[in-house]
User: What shape does this take?
Amino acid sequence: MAENTQNANAVSGFLKKIMPEKPPKEVKLSRKEERERFKKRLSTLTPAEQKYLKRKRAFEAVWPICRALLVFGLCFVIIYPLLYMITAAFRPRADMNDPTIIWISKNYTLQNIKDAARTMDFGKTLSNTLFLNIGCSIVSVITCAITGYGFGRFNFKGKTILFGVVILMILMPPQIILIPQYMFFRYFNPLGIWKAITGDYINLINNPLTMYMPAITANGLRAGLFIFLFRQSFRGLPKELEDAAYLDGCSPFMTFIKVMIPNAGSTFLTVFLLSVVWYWNDYYVSTSFFTDNSTIALQLKNLDASLTRIIFNNGNVKVNARELIVWMEAGCLISITPILVMYIFLQKNFTEGIARSGLTGM
Assistant: This one.
């Protein structure tokens, strides 16, 4: 019994030697005691060290105030238009001429939302936008992922030159290639022999293929950025994952399907959300290829002209610009609502994907 007690004491003493001691609890000092401690610390330093310590202490005192002002300014710039849009969308148009009303209206109405939805033919427009938006986004994510996987995990001749072309896709505005694209779709000649066989070209204007074909070839809206994000994400994954898959008999394509895609799920979601937003808000490319095809962006762009024609039954009627704001803001509100709802539910995955794909593998 005494021997067991002696062994236990020996083990306890050994553990006390190797285990770090618990740090003493910090005693909260008063401001006077902190100043006295700071003066004593300064007295032990050189003049250069004293200047540095004073500057550091001043910076630590001022920075929280500057940071709060910066955050407040950014919130004002970003949130102010959104708050004004919400308040104006539910405000009667007569209140827009009341100088006593700035934010809080005396009355609220849903008629503006109903009028804007009727003018935009929101049901048909939304379904048409989803067909183009979601479809092109899914296709663009798939093709850009395959392209980014090739740039991130394989070495081949001309890789540097081709990746330079991808960077040019990011830097080059779409206006530069818009006219050649229009001529290509207006006088479409498959394999260069269609005109020789039929005697005429294929006109793809006002056809969804004008949006789907660039997405299929990884040339859709912001495709260069998506390829870059996928490349960065795949480069950040361990090489051992591929080696293990190859040892199990997987081909490069099956390795991409079974190994790479599950490990880059957040990047896929991020690229999909970005693609949806850009296709949703696009009207420049859409107006070039469509003349009778309604999307959310096109309807919102032409909302002011459509309001006077549909609501007032007269395209020549003059409506006060301040009163027209309530319908414009209502149209903006119902247009961005689906995107806001999607972002609220997927915000965590979105920010995680941005961090993983944009900052790793540089």
About this structure: DSSP finds 17 helices and no strands in the chain. The first helix runs from residue 2 to 18.
